[in-house]
Amino acid sequence: MTSAKTAAPTISVDGVGRNFTVSGQTLVAIEKIDLDIQQNEFVSIVGTSGCGKSTLLNMIGGLDEPTSGEIRIEGKPVDGPGRDRGFVFQTYSLFEWMTVEKNIRFALEKSSFARAEKDELVAHFIQAVGLSGFEKAYPKQLSGGMKQRVAIARALVYKPSILLMDEPFGALDAQTRGMMQELLLKIWEDHKVTVVFITHDVDEAIFLADRVIVLASRPGRIKKDMRIELDRPRSYEVLTDPKFAAYKREVLTDIREETLKALSAGQG
């Protein structure tokens, strides 16, 4: 039997770079990133502002293209968005004129699922994100955390194998953010998707992930790839674990080093 360590990666980033042209000048946003992510793995990516975290995520999602190198999903080159990948952004991007139920169902419009199966999927994910009873509510009637639950349900309802999340809880208050983190872990454990999660919050990154990737300041490169050896399932008690504190100290030291480099280079 093939072990998890030798299995072909679900996501493979091979020598990827991304340049932009700004005012006639070439800006190197990302440079020579190599990264493999295995099936069902939860990977958090952190780093200084402008280090290319969202750029990398967008390229994995097919919303942007590398200038050099290649990204593959299940061995196939990424040539655009696909239904194997679900996206959740910091902004909720819900249709204000649609109910919770219809916002989630919208993701299934072009699917081949039968109507009864669509009904079942929508009902399942409404329950999974804790919105039972709010099926007929409109976004203006929901809190920020509830809106983000709708966005997560919509990203998962068509059964993608990969969930890409760009600061999904960044606009939430601390209490709601903590509840959403625990909800996300439950959904991940129940549905076994591969997650790539962008955040500026080091506690959040460590609490959620199997691995934390620290990107260097621009041009973005992998400064550290740290495996998080904390037992699962996790509760917030793990934040008091000495191992958690050691991980946090190491990541914060790396980010501080990169922040100082960026400031000295005039990037901050």
TrEMBL record:
Keywords: ATP-binding, Nucleotide-binding, Transport. Residues 11-242 form the ABC transporter domain. It holds the Pfam family ABC_tran. Transmembrane segments: none annotated. The keyword ATP-binding applies. GO terms for molecular function: ATP binding; ATP hydrolysis activity. CDD domains: ABC_NrtD_SsuB_transporters (cd03293). InterPro entries: AAA+_ATPase, ABC_transporter-like_ATP-bd, ABC_transporter-like_CS, ABC_transporter_ATP-bind, P-loop_NTPase. SMART domains: AAA. It comes from the Bacteria. PANTHER family: ALIPHATIC SULFONATES IMPORT ATP-BINDING PROTEIN SSUB (PTHR42788:SF13), TAURINE IMPORT ATP-BINDING PROTEIN-RELATED (PTHR42788). Belongs to the ABC transporter superfamily. This is ABC transporter ATP-binding protein.
